[in-house]
Amino acid sequence: MANPAMLTTLSASPTAVVTGGESGIGLATLIRLARAGYAVFSGDLRLDPANDAVLAELAIHRQVCDVRREADVQSLITTAHGVTGRLDVLVNNAGVALVKPITEVTEAEWDRCLDTNLKAAFFGCKHAIPLMKANDRGGAIVNVASNAGLLPRAHDPVYSISKHALVGLTKSLALCHSVDRIRINAVCPGPVGDTGMVNADLMAASDPTAMAEQFIAASPLARAFRRMITPDEVAQAIEYLISDAALLVTGTMIAIDGGKSLGVPPKGN
Question: Model-level pTM?
């Protein structure tokens, strides 16, 4: 049974739910929000024992959540609301990559990509919005999209389709629920180092160093600074979008991609 004093403390804290919280951007977001005073509830397909100590120290609730299943997403959100009696923030972060020409994509791969990157955000918004509407101050939802949602990408068209659709969902729901004081925005990162997607690509590459350099070279600012974006830099943008500093910001896509989505980059070293 939970400590009554702890429950009282949690009920006084703004409450945030984050999906895909066991690695990369999600993990950085959990840690940042917990340190900022949020009661944080995290869901992921698998719980990584390597995170046990730091997340326990921050009193972050973790549960297994397959975001492709509505019941799992609903359970994560209702658990958070049941403990604290409120829901202030939802970060739809879970996502998967799919790098294939569309002629080689199977129906199962299409479903996995669209269900994880798009339908999961629909499930999250569907179950979070009614709880946020009950708050005097509404709430904030941040969808983690991609620069692939801002411009088409030839090497991963289905992934790009899923992120374009997520941007559309963000804008549409931001308009629908502005009257409810619910702000809905997106961050569009890339290339971000130390994430599940990038690490998987590097591990599968015959020359990981060359691939990392290729990621960096594709983004003019990343190339200029000779590094990828960090997960915490994206988490800082998420923290801004849910803060009072962004109280009148909704339907906005923040590109955290080192200028990759701007167009053809200038020549440089």
Answer: 0.93
For the chain, domains (ranges, CATH) are 4-190+231-254 (3.40.50.720), 192-228 (no CATH)
Cβ neighbours, 10 Å, residue 222: 22
Task: Classify residue 112 as left (phi > 0), alpha (psi -120 to 50) or beta.
Answer: alpha
Using DSSP's 3-state secondary structure scheme, residue 46 falls into: coil
Q: What is the pLDDT of residue 1?
A: 38
Joined together, the tokens standing for residue 217 give 């070279």
pLDDT of residue 214: 85
Residues 234 and 28: beta-carbon distance below 8 Å:
yes
Active site residues: 159
With a cut of 70, list the residues of the chain below it in pLDDT. 1-11, 268-269
Tell me the β-bridge partners of 256.
Answer: 189
> Hey, what are 224's tokens?
């200029």
Indicate the helix (H) or strand (E) that contains 62.
Answer: strand 61-64
User: Tokens for 247?
Assistant: 């109280």
Q: 229: alpha, beta or left, given left = phi > 0 and alpha = psi -120 to 50? A: beta
- For residue range 29-48, what is the model confidence (pLDDT) as tens digits? 999 999 999 999 999 999 99
